[in-house]
Amino acid sequence: MKKIKDVLKLRYIVNLSFPKIAISTGVAKSTASDYCKRFEIIKHTIEEFLLLDEDIMFAYLFPERKVKKELLIRPLPDMNYISKEITRRGVTFTLLWQEYKESNPTGYGLSQFKEHYYRYKKKLNPSMRQTHIAGENMFVDYSGMIVDVVCRKTGEISKAQIFVSVLGASGYTFVHATASQKQEDFIKSHIEAFEFYEGVPKILVPDNLKSAVISNTKKGIVINNSYAELGRHYNCAINPARVRKPQDKSLAEQGVQAIQRWILAVFRNRVFFSVDEINQAINPLLDIYNNKIMKKINKSRTQLFEEVEKQHLLALPANRFIYKEFKLARVNIDYHVELLKCFYSVPFKYLQEKVEIKYSTSLLEIYFKSSLIATHPRLHIINNTSTLKEHMPLNHQYQYEKMNPQRLLNWASSIGSNVKLFVQMRLEMYQHPSNSYKGIIAILSLAKVYGKIELDLALAYALSINATHVKSIKSILEKKLYAQGVNNITNTVFNEHKNIRGKDYYK
């Protein structure tokens, strides 16, 4: 359904053509067209439709089950004949297709007929003249020339990466220095570029670096999750350049070469101590570069941008994009999911379901079929748990409401002094004591199985070796490890406990 929603957004919000949608999403043009036709029958606005549950969306779009048909063997058109005839005055693709269908009733439809011809034509003439529509393409790349950054304290030298973006119609250029080409820095540069242009292009054309593209093969293009999320946030398509096809991003190549000559070369004898210093030095030189008059058209890139391109850019969304990472997880039987050894609750009805986790340094969101089902602050201490009361079954809510630190300490005191010390220590380990309740209850309940004296001795031994987990306490009890050092742990347990008669009783 994500693919279907991407197709509908690019068609009805961004107003892209089916060929461009196909390139960006990896969905065939005919399939994208079929999705759109089905959507138009529904008579919902695109905004209303995107708010629906994915199951309802699917039911609207595909009310019937398609019956699979056997694939037909279709004869290919005679490409040599078509390439000659199409150049003749008055001859159209529709006419040639009709002639083809008369002799081949089971042949291709008009769109596939034309697609096969265009593929044939590209083989004959691989170099294509590119015409860029205003507000459509933004080409991005990194400069091969880097800038040294010197650490003031140690003198260590690191390499700052130089991000370059160029708008297709005007050539208006943006340059941004970052500490690396990693995904977070790559996306940060895009956000800075959009704010520099005060708008968003319809299509992003990156190179095939790992921060943008997972794979780009004949089978299709797989965009990095975080980069795809950036495109969804700003309602723009992502169309990576073909592998080893620099002509697909020729403007970016030219932009990189130009800024190396006009900006980076100026820094050859300059020492920088931070990436921010580099960006501050870039800004005035970038203005000079964009304001340079181009000889062939007698206008600057800035003038072309203001006159031709700026008004065709998409408006910036109200909220700035926040970089997030992604993980797929399955909900455990305790209605929590695990991320980096921390645990977060979801509504208990999603037990065993597969969910998608999106997380930043401060916030974590959990989605089921693209619907947000839980939000938590990001935890950074291993084994911490974030549990929301409304996510619990009713019987669990009651248990947690009636339980509090004092009740746990009273329960522990009724078992033994060492148990009370252990519980006090466990409660102090957590910033939110409620996160420790589950483990403490499990340990105190062991008194019903092994006896109060044994549990008190086991926890005294656990305190001496700093063991805190339920599994560790069970192991101590099962193997009777506490018996190895009973005399060292405590003598008063046997001498003073009310249930111990003592040796004098038998005299």
Give a structural overview.
Helices cover 44% and strands 16% of the residues. It is an alpha+beta fold. It has four domains: 2-124, no CATH class; 137-312, Nucleotidyltransferase, domain 5; 325-395, no CATH class; 403-503, no CATH class. It is extended, with a radius of gyration of 33 Å. The termini are far apart.
List the helices and strands and how they pair.
Elements (H helix, E strand, L loop, with lengths): L1 H11 L5 H8 L3 H14 L3 H5 L3 H8 L17 H7 L7 H11 L6 H15 L12 E6 L4 E4 L6 E11 L5 E6 L4 H15 L5 E3 L7 E5 L2 E4 L1 H10 L2 E2 L11 H13 L12 H17 L1 E2 L4 E2 H9 L15 E6 L5 E4 L2 E4 L8 E6 L3 E6 L2 E7 L7 E2 L7 H9 L2 H11 L1 H13 L7 H8 L2 H4 L1 H14 L4 H10 L6 H4 L2 H5 L11
Parallel strand pairs: 1-5, 5-8, 13-17
Antiparallel strand pairs: 1-3, 2-3, 3-4, 6-7, 9-10, 11-14, 12-13, 14-15, 15-16
Helix pairs in contact: 1-2, 1-3, 2-3, 15-16, 15-17, 16-19, 19-20
Class derived from helix and strand content = alpha+beta
Number of helices: 22
Q: What oligomeric state best describes the polypeptide chains here?
A: single chain
| CATH homology group of the largest domain | Ribonuclease H-like superfamily/Ribonuclease H
**Looking at the structure, what is the overall shape?**
extended
**What's the overall average pLDDT, rounded?**
84
- Rounded to the nearest angstrom, the distance between the terminal CA atoms is 83 Å
